[in-house]
Write a structure and sequence with these properties.
By secondary structure, the chain is α/β, with parallel strands linked by helices. It is built from nine helices and ten strands. It is globular, with a radius of gyration of 20 Å.
Amino acid sequence: MSTGEHPLILAIESSCDDTSAAVLRGTQMLSNCVATQQMHALYGGVVPELASRAHQQHIVAVVNEALNEANIAKNDLSAIAFTKGPGLLGSLLVGVSFAKSLAQALAIPLIEVNHMQGHILAHFIAEAHPETPKFPFLALTISGGHTQIVRVNAPDQFELLGQTLDDAVGECFDKSAKVLGFEYPGGPQIDKLAALGNPNAFSFSIPNVSGLDFSFSGLKTQFIRVVTQEMKKDSHFVEMNKADLAASLQYTITEILVQKLELALHETGIGQIAIGGGVAANSGIRMALTALAQRKNVQLFVPELSYCTDNAAMIGISGYFKYLVSDFADLSVQAEARYAVQS
């Protein structure tokens, strides 16, 4: 077992529909392998039972691929990090069970990781960004299941400042995209089409939610209602207005995020923002937050696209920080579908 300054950590991520394994030496990523599940597009969303079965099929091959790509033998590993939650329970159970078994067989420490903390700490992977945020900083985590503003005081100190009260931003994108005829996941297709449309063509309401919390359920419902009603009048409505609808939806979502983040900057006085999660790949959101950072004279950290989606490298970097302070789990640890980001 390696116990030096730069531990070798195998990380496993299985919170949703991607099976991923990575190997990190300290903050240096040696490999980051992902097996995606394509069949969910047929059902318009992730089917939990199918996802967990696919994880069982993929996990051994993905872990072996990560070790081979890193040119690391199992006996060289210092610890195994894994996603404890939040996520789909059946999917999480596959990764947790595998990590526990392997750690026990190798007699090395086991490290539980919060998936959302992993998205935030992905900025500290050496390849992810030439600079890393300085503590404290604000993190905006936006994905299919979460929308949160978090104050990050240290690698193990997270304070939840605001979150969605209903739907996550990614769900709003995907469910709205469905009525436009896009397959799951529709968010990336909305982003691509929005670049061709007029963001002011349609006006959608920004919800009145106090503080730093969010709400996207009303916007999603309003968008679907407008499209449905107009389609009854003219069956060609979506075909004729698809780009404008996409641009107007994306503009409204972006305005909600910008307004809340601007309020968080004002209330905390913090001058650094880091974004993460799958929706952080959205080009319109990236541009709007870049403009906000310039307007407010704050520093914005935007991850590479490969670190926005679920991946094991972000679990590995979170595990690295826990390894440094010997924050290990025992074999009684269980997966948790709901797992608060706040430490």
